[in-house]
Design a protein that fits this description.
The complex is a heterotrimer of chains A (about 400), B (about 400) and C (about 110).
Chain A lengths: L25 E7 L3 H12 L5 E4 L15 E2 L6 H21 L10 E5 L2 H16 L5 E4 H7 L10 E5 L3 E2 L3 H13 L3 E3 L6 E5 L2 E6 L2 E10 L5 H5 L9 E12 L7 E4 L4 E5 L4 E5 L15 H14 L7 E12 L6 E3 L7 E5 L5 H16 L6 H5 L4 H4 L13
Parallel strand pairs in A: 1-2, 1-11, 2-8, 4-13, 11-18
Antiparallel strand pairs in A: 3-7, 4-6, 5-6, 9-10, 10-11, 12-15, 12-16, 13-14, 14-15, 17-18
Chain B lengths: L8 H7 L6 E2 L6 E2 L12 E4 L2 E5 L11 E2 L14 H5 L14 H14 L17 E10 L3 H12 L4 E5 L15 H15 L2 E4 L2 E6 L7 E6 L2 E12 L3 E2 L13 E3 H9 L8 E6 L4 H13 L3 E6 L3 E5 L6 E4 L4 E3 L2 E5 L3 E2 L2 H6 L3 E4 L4 E4 L12 E3 L9 H19 L2
Parallel strand pairs in B: 6-7, 6-11, 7-8, 11-23, 13-19, 14-15, 14-19
Antiparallel strand pairs in B: 1-2, 3-4, 3-5, 9-10, 10-11, 12-20, 16-17, 17-18, 21-22
Helix pairs in contact in B: 4-5, 4-9
Chain C lengths: L4 E3 L4 E2 H9 L5 H8 L12 H12 L18 E2 L33
Antiparallel strand pairs in C: 1-2
Helix pairs in contact in C: 1-3
The chains are: A alpha/beta (about 400), B alpha/beta (about 400), C mainly alpha (about 110).
């Protein structure tokens, strides 16, 4: 079956990206999770010549957090490591469409963080100083200057704002299609609808059981996001992360008017205008515990509406088109967990990104593949060990800017 | 423009000869009325400064300002319509212009400027209406033949009943069907009132939120504000959506859902065309026949053809002819597409009710037993949402299911 | 040359569905994301069954094995202002008593 006369710059479809064949008996690497993190690692492994890679996912492509986030890409962080990683990620995002042959609609309209209290201003000032030292041109604006960037803002109660013009937004799904398609073209096998039900650790590797058959991996990479603890528990590894439902919604498409991503520190409200013209955003809804439930709530959409209409009164008659939820993958110190535990040196994890794994994935996947194929590990792998929660050594700086 | 107060803007526009209202998102193809029941995106207009409102769901009132959208310079003549010719077979916008960074940068800028439907509302003083909470024994969603019968039966059995309908006027498919019509709809509505049930028209059940309250809460966008409804038993009688059939240029203005044509004729007394071609699925032949006869009686020339005989339609800004696979052309100024309505099962799905794809019965029908029980304990369903039945069978099922719901809610 | 449109909100054609399936995206959720069908103002009311039937034909699957995509709230486009005074809306520290409508019930009435 061919794609009719659809104009596709890649020409005829060729081999489909998603495999329908049975699982192979063995693979050098099995990656659990076909989200952006797993696919980025698989793609970069293949780019480094390691193509005996099988990626499996329990659901459809983009079912997890990678298909559910708002597509924000920013360099405004509170730790030097995260700032420097995101500088690299932004560069990779700028090149992504051409390198991987798929539009991600990356638009660097900036990120505008609004402060309503002196304490919030102090927090922004401290971060800006660090960001400037790293070469990120974030600057402090007074309320009037923030209003010049977004005239629709109601500045009542806004004291100051942090603005970095090179932050931006993109459309998340094409990252998965791009990585998946190029990885598949290099020989990586992708199997969706293939949930892991059991893992046997043996001397020759890990036997991964699924309803679609078994595959033995010499090395196992768990990129299952918020579901990482459930996978790790199959081989008795405890990962101290937990899922938090984060809700988000999208409006009707409107002609372009909103340039930056706007975020308000006091409520965790954030919103941006997508390439399709929709206002996409969310808000913090405090007081809920850990859950895998992805049900939408009235509490969320009411909280979001209340805060957004207060901040931008002209949006009062803008209509919500759909709302959904995804899991934030929370870690005790707000920093990710990477690498393998000592007792399982061939079981690698990549989790605990607290809702920001998507924007980190382009660079983390590349660094991970570089390390696995023989390069010296980047600093982040030494800082982000699972062992830090066992020996109390800590990961160094605590990231406190996990918002928006 | 002259209109009857309370009549929908769409009906008034149609009667006054307005045809193309807007252009589509990707190919800038002309867009206009299709379903006339508030479900499709055909008749989106800007009304009093608010973008993307469905003309068929806006009641006319003096001074209301209506504008077309997403077209340069006007919906009738739009230069971006050229996009449609360049990509005659379609395009994969995911790979478009990814050949070089410069080209890609241009693509990003251009697409951003072309994106979106409608511009931001002009005012910043929109009033936030009060939100009210209601608890009832039985909540019936939909006031078509099934829902009205269910609400009346449940109320007669002693239950405290609230019936909701998203249309400006209750009656559902009765108002699109010349075999029933306004008098039949009004009689069924009167029966609901006589039985003591509450009925709100223009109130759209927008979501069932399972975790916001014990047992969940139904959010309803009523004419005067949001309602939070809780009920012991839910009865989904949401009917079916008018859908299109697959033939070439099936989105041309002038191709309308037969039910939309029926609603114009039966509810609004507007004859939608002079030479009408009814393209029909055999599953709704009885309705198509009744509609064709009524259109003919109202003065139109009518020709009926089977859906699988149709190759494509002809005409650009408005349909001119239906071309059959045999090569024969039927000249017309309106095509009425009579497809099996697609069960409106989104709400039951939010409750967790099982559905199954059943093409002869219109789509994803809610799975029910003889008493209308779904796979979820406190949720029942009746009428076309359980698979296409037609008005008479839907009403009979509604009466049965309404009584069951009342008995379970008030044991 | 004519187009056979399956989703009029997003201009998705039957050829686009075939293209998506040829790319390996068979699952209705994947097809939704790749083609964009069902993501416009009608949120799939007009197209989800039409597309599901077409996918069953294109992939040879029995119709009963093709599920719909997840139904997301709201079922009709709803203005933000409709939700603003909902009692479930969380009140933040800077949000207390600054609206005329705050005489409304407190946030957690439903569980009581």
């Amino acid at each position: 079956m061919e794609g009719g006369n659809v104009i596709d710059e890649h020409g005829p479809a060729g081999a489909p990206t998603l495999a329908r064949a049975p699982l192979p008996p063995r693979a050098e690497y099995v990656v659990i999770g076909a989200g952006v993190m797993g696919l980025s690692i698989a793609y970069h492994l293949a780019r480094r010549g390691v193509t005996d890679v099988v990626v499996i996912d329990r659901g459809y492509l983009a079912e997890g957090a990678s298909g559910r986030n708002g597509g924000g890409i920013r360099q405004q962080w509170s730790t030097e490591l995260n700032i420097r990683l995101m500088q690299q990620s932004v560069e990779l995002c700028r090149r992504f469409a051409v390198e991987l042959g798929v539009n991600v609609w990356f638009r660097q309209g900036g990120y505008l963080f609004l402060a309503r209290t002196a304490a919030e201003v102090q927090r922004l000032e401290r971060n800006i100083a660090l960001q400037n030292r790293c070469g990120v041109a974030t600057r402090m604006l007074d309320a009037g200057a923030a209003g010049d960037i977004v005239p629709e803002l109601s500045l009542d109660g806004v004291v100051a704002a942090a603005y970095n013009p090179t932050d931006g937004i993109l459309f998340p799904w094409p990252f998965l299609w791009g990585y998946a398609r190029q990885a598949a073209a290099l020989g990586v096998q992708l199997h969706t609808h293939t949930p892991v039900v059991r893992i046997d650790a043996g001397t020759t590797g890990y036997r991964v059981h699924t309803p679609r058959g078994e595959v033995v991996a010499r090395r196992l990479i768990c990129a299952a996001g918020a579901w990482t603890p459930e996978v790790a528990r199959m081989i008795d590894v405890e990962v101290p992360t937990w899922p938090i439902r984060h809700e988000i919604c999208s409006s009707e498409p409107l002609k372009p008017f909103l340039k930056p991503m706007v975020s308000e520190l006091s409520s965790g409200l954030y919103c941006s205008q997508s390439m399709r013209g929709e206002i996409v955003g969310g808000v913090t809804v405090p007081g809920h515990g850990s859950t895998y439930s992805m049900a939408s709530t009235l509490e969320f959409v009411a909280t979001y509406a209340r805060r957004l209409v207060r901040l931008m009164p002209r949006l009062g008659d803008v209509k919500i088109l759909r709302q959904w939820a995804g899991p934030y993958d929370c870690s005790p110190d707000g920093n990710p967990i990477l690498g393998a535990p000592p007792e399982h040196p061939d079981f690698y994890v990549a989790c605990g990104f607290v809702g920001h794994g998507f924007m980190m994935a382009p660079v983390i996947g590349k660094l991970y593949a570089d390390w696995l194929t023989g390069d010296a590990p980047h600093e982040i792998f030494q800082r982000s060990t699972l062992a830090r929660f066992r020996d109390g050594a800590g990961a160094g700086d605590k990231e406190d800017f996990n918002i928006g | 423009m002259r209109a009857f107060e309370g009549e929908s803007v769409a009906a008034a526009l149609f009667a006054s000869g307005t045809r193309v209202l807007a252009r589509s998102l990707k190919y800038h193809r002309p867009r206009t009325f299709f379903c006339m029941s508030g479900h499709c995106s055909g008749c989106l207009v800007r009304a009093d400064g608010v973008p993307n409102l469905r003309a068929c769901q806006i009641p006319c009132r003096p001074g209301l300002e209506i504008q077309g959208q997403n077209a340069y310079p006007s919906p009738d003549f739009d230069i971006l319509g050229a996009v449609d010719f360049f990509f005659a077979g379609g395009m994969d916008h995911h790979t478009l212009m990814t050949g070089s960074r410069l080209l890609n940068k241009v693509a990003n800028k251009v697409v951003r400027q072309l994106s979106g439907l409608g511009t931001l509302p002009g005012h910043d003083d929109a009033v936030a209406p009060e939100v009210r909470s209601i608890e009832v024994d039985v909540c019936v969603i939909g006031a078509g033949p099934a829902g009205l019968a269910a609400a009346a039966a449940a109320a007669r059995a002693g239950a405290h009943v609230l019936c909701l309908d998203e249309q400006l006027r209750a009656g559902g498919s009765l108002l699109t069907d010349p075999r029933h019509g306004v008098a039949a709809a009004d009689a069924a509505v009167r029966d609901v009132h006589d039985a003591g049930a509450g009925l709100i028209a223009g109130a759209c059940a927008i979501a069932f939120y399972p975790e916001d309250a014990a047992g969940g809460v139904l959010a309803v966008a009523a004419p005067d504000g949001l309602l939070r409804v809780r009920a012991r038993r839910w009865v989904w009688a949401s009917g079916g959506y008018p859908v299109n059939l697959l033939f070439g240029d099936n989105d041309r203005p002038g191709v309308m859902a037969a039910r939309g044509v029926g609603r114009l004729l039966v509810q609004h007394r507007v004859l939608a065309g002079g030479r009408i071609c009814v393209v029909e699925d055999p599953g709704v032949a009885a309705y198509a026949g009744a509609l064709a006869a009524a259109l003919h009686a109202a003065g139109a020339e009518v020709e009926r053809v089977a859906a699988d005989a149709v190759e494509r339609v002809r005409g650009r800004s408005w349909v001119k002819a239906v071309q059959l696979r045999t090569g024969k052309k039927i000249d017309c100024d309106l095509v009425a597409v009579a497809a099996v309505p697609s069960p409106a099962s989104e709400g039951p799905r939010q409750h967790g009710c099982a559905v199954t794809l059943d093409p002869p019965r219109g789509g994803f029908r809610v799975v029910v037993d003889d008493d209308g029980h779904t796979t979820v304990a406190d949720v029942l369903a009746c009428g076309d949402v359980t698979g296409h039945l037609g008005p008479d069978a839907a009403a009979a099922m509604g009466a049965r299911v309404g009584a069951v719901a009342a008995a379970e809610a008030c044991p | 040359m004519s187009k056979i449109v399956v989703c009029r909100c997003e201009d998705v054609t039957l050829a686009d569905l075939e293209h998506s399936v040829a790319r390996g995206y068979h699952d209705i959720e994947e097809v939704k994301r790749y083609t964009g069908f069902g993501t416009g103002p009608c949120q799939g009311k007009e197209c989800v069954a039409v597309v599901a039937c077409a996918l069953a034909r294109l992939t040879g699957a029995a119709p009963a094995t093709v599920p719909p995509f997840t139904s997301r709230p709201p079922l009709a486009p709803t203005p933000l202002r409709w939700f603003v005074r909902d009692p479930a809306a969380h009140r933040f520290a800077d949000d207390r008593g600054d609206d005329a409508d705050d005489g409304a019930a407190p946030a957690t009435d439903e569980e009581a």
